[in-house]
Design brief:
Length: 282
Amino acid sequence: MHDDNSPSWKRGLRKWLHTAPETRDELLKLVQESRQFLEDDTVAMLEGVLDLPATKIREVMTPRTALVSLREDDELLDILQALIESAHSRFPVFSAEQNDTVVGVLLAKDLLPFLTHLNTPQLNSQKVDIATLMRQPLFVPESARSDQVLRMLRTTQTHLAIVVDEHGTTSGIVTLEDILEEIVGEIEDEHDDGDQQASWIKPLDGSDNTWIVQALTPIEFFNEQFNSHFSDDEVETMAGLILQELGLVSDLVGQSVELDGWRFQIIEADARSIQLIEAKKL
């Protein structure tokens, strides 16, 4: 027999435990109604777990335009520079012959023996065959569910997967941390910059209608700053937006596009990605 004089949270808990939800939506509703006797963080994590099956990996991944990547024919000095500047622990390695194909994943720890010769004559004479160091990549489709990919990463004891579209072209990468952040929220480590947003967009000296924009600036953030309406349905960053308009070009630096009253010009880039953009309000 129920004690009607028991605290309301206990009565709510009994009701919650004795209700058998038949669908995911019903279970999610029960979790949301449990806020009166669960911490907000706990409820948020439960919601994240329940949302994973409905989250496609394309919504979680880091798009190709934002990748720090290597090529299998890169020189050792270039590889070490990418390692030091990015502070990443894993790098997708693209084929030297097929620019859209990832052939492996290189772990930073496998390059540690070469760091002992940094800034020494021995380093310049040292050759490295990335193929002998890189690991076999795990490929997942854009349409895969996040919970499925999480299971695959755990089963294969892998921390990074290559995301491909229906044509087999590399769309981006997804890491174990990316998926876990869908459950527990943003995970900051010692390399995360808490003031990163402050560096995304800076005014050009001496101008009141021109800004220098980091390539990885989210389109949503740019829209918020300038009350613009660029779509982020297909790409998420300003670099992606520009590359979407340009298509395939051989020399990125100096290329420009005009969109919705703005002129975007690439002012810093390498053969594979954009770093800096000049955005001018026309």
